[in-house]
Automatic annotation (TrEMBL):
PANTHER family: ABC TRANSPORTER ATP-BINDING PROTEIN. It comes from Pseudomonas fluvialis. This is ABC transporter ATP-binding protein. Residues 5-234 form the ABC transporter domain. SUPFAM superfamilies: P-loop containing nucleoside triphosphate hydrolases (SSF52540). GO terms for molecular function: ATP binding; ATP hydrolysis activity.
Amino acid sequence: MSAVIAIQQLSKTYASGHSALRQVDLEIQRGEIFALLGPNGAGKTTLISIICGIVNPTSGQVLVDGQDIVRDYRAARSQIGLVPQELVNDVFETVSASLRFSRGLFGKKPDPAYLEQLLRDLSLWDKRDAKIFELSGGMKRRVMIAKALAHEPRILFLDEPTAGVDVELRRDMWEMVRRLRERGVTIILTTHYIEEAEEMADRIGIIRKGEIILVEDKALLMRKLGKKQLSLQLKQPLASLPGSLQGFALELDAQGQVLRYHYDGQQEHSGIAELLRTLDEAGIEFGDLQSSQSSLEEIFVNLLRESA
């Protein structure tokens, strides 16, 4: 895949002296879903705002499909749809009028059929003649998504799109994201719901204190940094680990009934066979046995802790 967004040495320092971004280099591949993760104040929204032409960078360059976001602002911005964190709508407009206006802002010819399908996809067709102030918070969020897509952008930014919305809207939104990706739209999202990034994203970027500390294919990241765990439910509780088990990376729960073995799934030899043989030799019997792997959230927390 080719890069649809290319960022080089991007920095932003505000008048207050706060350095929000520091020498950021990043490429977003055409047609992928890219999740940008980071704690509050890490620089996610500043980075998105610069790419979308809302905030001017202090230094560096952003190319959107080969167009410089500063020098070729209109051409670059026309490729982008943005759903911001905050609900910002012309509340006295009707839903349909708001979409038509958003489409016209980018010089797009009227296309009632496209806007109708967009409203239907977002379960807004029945609300098309309602004034925006009459809608619920979830419906207003749907209108913002529709407005971001009204001019048929090839790149869509979703900045905390499901914060404070109901489960139904969240499910509908991710179904829509999948359909957009199938049509070749590049999706960049920030989210506090890391399980969403784990489910949806192709690649993960992590930003901390204005610096990108990691960009990795999600599946590869999970394989490389996701620790595996084997849990054994003991038939008889143990007061402590016997000496023969001290060489294994084991944890005994407070009740002495569950033995947890941590191992690296990337290694050719997990050590499980040796552990089970040692348990048998020690006369320690177990009933249930379960394996699990670290979630993306656990990997994310550990990475931030290590880079602190």
